[in-house]
Amino acid sequence: MVKDSLSLEAITSNLETRFIGQRVIYHSRVTSTNELAKQAVRQGAVEGTAVIADEQTAGRGRLERVWLSPKGSISLSIILYPGVTYLPSLIMVASLAVVRSIEAVTGLKSQLKWPNDVLVNGKKVCGILIENSVRGNIVNYAIIGIGVNVNLRLSDFPEILPTATSLSDELGREVSRLEIIRRLLVEIEKSYLALSAGESIYEEWRDSLVTLGRKVHIKSGDNDYEGIAESVASDGSLSLRHPDGSLTKIVAGDVTLCD
Ligand code: BT5
């Protein structure tokens, strides 16, 4: 069995980053790491502060949906103060960091389902929730929230069993959350710094999407669309080709792959 206990010391010691994860707020149980991160912002947290928990009692997905995050999962939020032009790229930063970290630590290949799911063998292993506070062109904060199913037995969670998986279920063995967390911090910093240096991470993100070229159903607000997911733009939006040939640009939504 993998030794899987987290501690502030273990997360931060000799961490090879400049600022991401150099300050960590760690608790074994919290409501939501994104909520704690917002409190930390109000108290003046520095850029790169990470909030990490073993367990969330009120983990959230998009649109206030429930995110199950029992012991054995990773719940992590990173506080950033980026320029407004970088906001659309944060989902790319986060999702690529997850794909790279999972592969580096476990060897498992994962794919991205637009806009914010990471899949292993077609099932959701990770969800990402980015919350920004922006006034005009000024970003008060951006919080990247990442939840990864690491050592969970999905059969204990029948409500998500049909669509979700965990790293341990995929591998048939436990995985070190500590290694994944430390790698995530390094990978998030790498992509975030690349962005600030004017490099693009869009192409790698686009090429990791399983959604492109597929027939999809998309629910976006009150609208339901069906068509072929044709392309994504560097602002993160998706272009959907309808059966009548017309095109809709979609910024956010829930995608079901139809084939
Ligand atoms: C997400 O929302 O996928 C974003 C999840 C973000 C969670 C992180 S954990 C750290 C930080 N703190 C928070 O409070 N949140 C962030 P969405 O695309 O809306 O997907 C939510 C849906 O995924 C739910 O309605 C369920 O159907 C499903 N779901 C819930 N828990 C799951 C899990 N552990 N694994 C896979 N699917 C899950």
Molecular structure report:
A hairpin with a 5-residue loop joins strand 9 and strand 10 (238-241). The N and C termini lie far apart (38 Å). The mean pLDDT is 96. A 7-stranded mixed sheet has the order 1-2-3-7-6-5-4, with helices on both faces. A 5-stranded antiparallel sheet has the order 11-10-9-8-12, with no helix packed on it. Helix content is 24%, strand content 32%. Helix 3 runs antiparallel to helix 5 (177-196). The chain is globular and about 60 Å long. The chain folds into 2 domains: 8-206, Bira Bifunctional Protein, Domain 2 (BirA Bifunctional Protein, domain 2); 212-257, SH3 type barrels, CATH 2.30.30.100. The protein is of the alpha+beta class. The protein has helices spanning 8-12, 33-42, 90-106, 167-171, 177-196, 202-207; strands spanning 24-30, 50-56, 73-80, 111-113, 117-120, 123-135, 138-149, 215-220, 223-232, 238-241, 247-250, 254-257. The longest helix is centred in the C-terminal third of the chain and has 20 residues, at 177-196. The structure holds biotinyl-5-AMP. Biotinyl-5-AMP binds next to helix 2, strand 3, strand 6 and strand 7.
